[in-house]
Amino acid sequence: MKFMYLLSAALITAGPAIAQEVAPAPAPETVTSEAAPSAPASSEASTVQETSPSPVVTAAAAPVADEPKCELHIWPAERFQAMTTGWLGGGLLDAAIHADGDKARRSQMASALDPGGQLDALQKLDLIALLKLPASKIVTHEEALDRKTVNKILTRRSDSKASCYSELIVTDVLYTKAAMWGRSLRTSFILRQFDASTGAPRIKKTTGGNGLKIFPAKKGEDTTEADAELVSIFQKNFTEATENFAKQTGSTS
Q1: Are strands 202-211 and 70-75 parallel, antiparallel or unpaired?
Q2: How far is residue 192 from each of residues 115, 164, 228, measured CA to CA in Å?
Q3: Cis upstream peptide for 40 (omega within 30°)
Q4: pLDDT of 120-150, one tens digit each?
Q5: What is the pTM of this model?
Q6: Angle between helices 224-246 and 115-123 (to 10 degrees)
Q7: What are the E-state strand segments in 124-222?
Q8: What sign results for the dihedral spanned by CA atoms 147, 158, 155, 237?
Q9: Is the pLDDT of residue 159 over 50?
Q10: To 10 degrees, what angle do helices 224-246 and 99-112 make?
């Protein structure tokens, strides 16, 4: 009896502990895609997504500037001259002495300042501002005008019908060398401005001239630097000419 009593007491005391070890812990709840599908988006959210796409930013087109109504037509010179005078002071004898040299210098000028070279040199300048003209479209003419007709023909030398119309004509390119004064390049220009109300243009004529330090290149030497100097002085002569134009009122003859 005593033994049975002790055994019963031991079982009663150990019972909860044994139950705690044997009883398995509840398995964690696992949600699968089939068991727990994602909640459908609300109809309101779906509608917003479909009707509110990301905004597209479009750059505004730049306004197109109106083309100038005025025109400036340009013609290059066809005539190149070279004149060298020694201590004899000119005359037939001086001309005969320097004839071959002047012929070579005319050829060098015609190469460096051919029609395309003259037009290119002028267009690298701000022609409209220098000539104090209204905004104008620049039109170049590769073929030089006949020098004999420049002062005789007073009508437009192009077919343009623009109501605001001007002409810039390069008439002469002259190289000179004087024993006392050294070498220089002189360039003559004519500016003709046509008024829509009258047929005759207002005419301005002038010359720009500046000294040379490199041109002409010596025989057999590379002419690159000498040619570049010619172009630079040609541009400088034009700038000087525009200053003279500004002082003139212009004539109609």
Answers
A1: unpaired
A2: 20, 12, 29
A3: no
A4: 999 999 999 999 999 999 999 999 999 999 9
A5: 0.71
A6: 60
A7: 136-140, 164-178, 182-194, 202-211
A8: negative
A9: yes
A10: 80
Q: What is the 3-state secondary structure (H, E, C) of 83-122?
A: EEECCCCCHHHHHHHCHHHHHHHHHHHHHHCCHHHHHHHH
Are 174 and 79 contacting, i.e. CB atoms less than 8 angstroms apart?
no
CA distance 178 to 181: 5
Partner residues linked to 186 by β-bridges: 174, 209
Rounded to 5°, angle at Cα 241 from 236 and 246: 130
**Quick check: 116 pLDDT over 80?**
yes
Beta bridge partners, 187, equal 173, 208
Distance CA(182)–CA(172), nearest Å, equals: 20
Question: Which residues 6+ apart lie within 8 Å of 212 measured at CB?
Answer: 175, 182, 183, 184, 185, 229, 230, 233
